[in-house]
Structure formats: structure tokens, C-alpha cells
Amino acid sequence: MTATDVDNSEDLRDLYRELILDHARSPRHFGKLKDATHTAAGINPLCGDKLKLYLRLDAAKKIDAASFEGSGCAISVASASLLTDTIIGLDSPQALDYFNAVTGRLTQAKQNHDISASIDIGKIRALDGVREFPARVKCATLAWHALNAAIHQHSDPASTE
Amino acid sequence: MTRAPQDIPAGVAVLDCRQDFPALQQTVNGHPLVYLDSAASSQAPQSVIDAVANYQRSDHANVHRGVYELSHRATERYEGARDKIREFINANSCSEIVLTSGTTESANLVAQSYCRPRLGSGDKILITHLEHHSNIVPWQLACEQTGAELLVAPIDPRGQLDLDAIYQLLTDDVRLLAIGHVSNALGTINPIEDIIVRARSMNIPVFVDGAQGVPHMPIDVQQLGCDFYAFSGHKMYGPTGTGVLYGRETLLDSMPPYKGGGDMILEVSFKGTTYNELPYKFEAGTPNVSGAIGLAAAVDYLQSVGMTDIARHEAQLLGYMLNRLREIDGIRLIGTADQQVGVQSFMLDEIHPHDLGTILDHQGVAIRTGHHCAMPLMDYFSVPGTARASLAIYNNTHDVDQLIAALIRAKQIFK
């Protein structure tokens, strides 16, 4: 029997959905944001994923620009890319709602991820595949922890540990 | 010494001992387990599992204390383990065999007990760019504590030490050379014999991190001539939490205790304490008795298979693995030293090692992905980490074939 004989690849396809691979290959809003008002670093010491998230908040605390840079696996890069896509245009409290919703959704059991009615989880659903891969949940939540840290302007790097 | 892979024709492996390892008889994610992460931690043969269980079942008591039968038995078996390890690496006496919790503790012992009292500003400790964190950080700590300076010898793009550069850095103010026998991340076998001769001619003591050496080749510390040699049980088919520090007796004798507690004393009063003789001076508290017995069983197992055959088997299998890896489009081998144990780091296309690890695991293939606790080395190659397949006595060509099939599957997913 060779490794490809047994077809148990459904979970794997679910993890590496086309949308995830697309965002990993061509991350959106990638690069430094020169006039950022809030930044935070995210480090996953286990696998060496490192990213830096940049936010620009206007006077009304609305996120009018966001970007990220760094290196990581497909899941962490795609997650950061989806994050920036999602939060631009949100008020910072709304963005924190997303942080809670996404981290809750990915770290809790399937049936138990009620989210606030104000949140449209939308294409972030593409990350759901990681729930079957406990070792990879931290990759998917790294950027979101950085978001939380940036909004609160924590001075230490966000870590998933 | 393991021969260079290119000297050995790829072919059928020499050894067939997979059936001795119960962990390898399982399926993972619907596939028979292919375990290629023995450089991180090896599986244990049935004989090691039995030795630990039998001790726990019928011989367990505290050692060096009781006057009763069980304590006597436990002490005999614990000290018997020490003697077996002494013989395995050909140390001169059991006084030179300190049982520790692993290579990391062995390095910390030397850093704190040998370096810290002796070093000051102007002194240097020399390490190499190949080292993993446990052969970097203990010396960094000692340098911070004493004001000494940490020097790092460079490597070449194939992951080999630059001997001329090492010899240039080996000056009179170097108070210790700490060097890995074999690189955990790249598998490079360092020419430590030559380096030790050079260092000793200048009276510079040498600490060898042998965690990746002992499982793969015969080790004779007297022939090597090193001053310290450290290794871990769980990388040589023994239990976790076990390890050894070999130290030259005159040096160990001159070093103060590293930890205080029971067993390391002769006499204690509130005015002061007289320390026990070697090696007990360095073994405070109740030791890992079952672990030491398991480690001795691992030594028995290695000797029954034969270290020379093990080296040949792994070299042959490495040659096969390298040939098969090179067949894959988009493979980049990281570390291509002339002398290498059965460890290979690589990258595939633009796929992040962590993603490779998940996809391979899904097909029952366990490899290590990440920085291998050697971040400075990853920086040298400008990679965030690598995928690393490491071979052991129980691996065979079928395991390598499964690895290759799983890598091709990863390419399909990421195409």
C-alpha cells in the first residue's frame, strides 16, 4: 500500500481550501503601513511564524487601513490576509468582536460557536478546516491575537502560547 | 565513522528490527506509522519498556539509603546502569559518569559548575553556528553571569564547519570549546577528533554535545580525548528524562556541586556541608532510577544490534533517501555535508515546512518541521524552518518510499 492508496484526504482538502491557498499565495494588504497608528507583532515560537500587523485608526476609532508583513505557513498567512480584508472599515470594538468570534469559533467544538449577530463571519469560514487539526489552530489564530494586541496597544508581541 | 552517502550504493537496508518496537506497529490517520523523527526522540524497543516496567513492578525503592532488600536491589540496578553506560562509551571509571535528565542538563551543569566559577571578563567560550539552543543558551547564561564573551565559529553553505576559522578563533583566552558531535538540524558529522587534538594542544577543554552522535556510531571518549561528552537517553531508544555527562575525573573533581540536596552530601550541619564523592556530588535528590535502568536496557539493545551495523544501515538508507528526494522536482536540500548521519533537512517548492508536516502526518508520515531549536542556523540559510526526516535503526526503504509519496501528494495539494 502506498500513501496515496487510502483516501482520507477530505479533511486535508477542507484545511487547504482553494480560498486559503489563494490568500496564502497572494496575500492581500501585504506590506508595511507607513502611517499606522497601531501595530502588534505575532510570534508562534513553536513553528517560527512571525508577523506584524499594522492598523490605521481614524479619529472616530474606525480602522481605515490595515496591512501585515512577515512569514508563516499557508494557514497563518491566509488567516492574516482574510483578517485585513475583514476589518478594514470596522470600528475597533467591532473588530474586537470579530477577534472573539473567530478565536472562539476555531478553538471550540463545532456545535458551540455562537457568534454575535452583528458579525458576518463570511469567508473567514474558510478557516474552519483547522478545527480538525489541533496542532494548526494556533497558526490560524495568530493574526487575530495580534489584532487584539494592536487595538489594545500591548507592548509585548502577541503569542499564541 | 559513518561513510559518505555517495560511497554507498543504494540498496536494501542492513537491519530489520522494526518488529522490536511496539509503537511502530500502529496505524496513524489510516496509514501504517512511518516514523521519521528519531532525531527529536526515538521510539523504545520492547526490551526497554519491559526493563522499566519490571523495575517498577518488583525492584523499586529509593537508592543509596535503605538497608532492606528492595533498596539494595534498586541501588545495584542503578549503579549497574551507570557501569554499563561507562563501558558503552569507554570511560575510565564510574566517577566520570554523571546521570542527568538529558543533554540540556549536562550542558547546564558544565556551564554553571565549570565555567561560572572560573570565567571573567576577557575570557571566551567558543561555540559553532551549527549548534542547537541547548548548546548555545547555557553558555550565553554563563557569559552573562561572568562577563565572558561568546564566540561563534562560522559554517559553509553546505552546513560544514570551517576548520581554519575555528582554529583562528581558538586563542589562549578561550576557556572552553562547546561543539556538537553531529548537527541535529542538518546531520553534519563534525571532525571533532581533529578539533579536540588542536584544542587540547592549547589546554582548552572541550565539551561535546553528543546527543545526535551516540545513537548512530560507536563512541569512545578516551579515544576522542574530549573533556566532557553529553548525551540523552530518549534519542538512543531509552526513556525521556535520562541523560549522561561524561567528564574527565580531574575536572569533575575540581568543580563545585551544581545542585544541592540529598545524596550529594557526606555530612550536613547548619554551619556547612561536606560534599559526597564523584559522581554523587552532582546528583542531588532521588535520581531517575527507572529511567537509568531503561537507559541501560537501551544500551544493551544497541550493543546487541551492533553500533557498526547501525552506522552502516543508516548510511545506506540515507543514500537511498537522498537519491529519492532528489527525484522530486522543487526539492531543496538544506545541509549537504560530506559526512552526515541519517538526517536530512529540506524545503519543497514554496510550501512552508509546517504545511508539509500536516500533509505528511495525514498520510501517517511523522517528520519534524520548524526551526529544530536552532534558530541562528535557520537564519544562516534564510529559511523560517525546514522539514527534516531523520532515520533510525528501525527505518527501511519502505518508510522512505512513503515519505516520497506523501511529498508528491503535498505538491498536488499546493500546485
Average residue pLDDT of chain A = 85
Give the count of helical stretches of chain B.
Answer: 13
Radius of gyration over C-alpha positions of chain B, nearest whole angstrom = 22 Å
Give the ordered list of helices and strands of chain A. Answer: HHEEEHHHE
What gross morphology of chain B would you assign?
A: globular
Overall structural class of chain A, as computed from helix and strand content, comes to: alpha+beta
- Runs of chain B in which pLDDT lies below 50 for 5 or more consecutive residues are 1-10
Which two chains share the most extensive interface?
Answer: A-B, 27 and 30 residues
Distance between the termini of chain B: 41 Å
Strand order of the largest sheet of chain B: 4-10-9-8-7-5-6
Order of helices and strands of chain B: EEEHHEHEHEHEHEHEEHEEHHEEHEEHEH
The spatial strand order of the largest sheet of chain A comes to 3-2-1-4
Proportion of beta-strand residues of chain B: 15-25%
End-to-end separation of chain A in angstroms reads 38 Å
Number of domains of chain A: 1
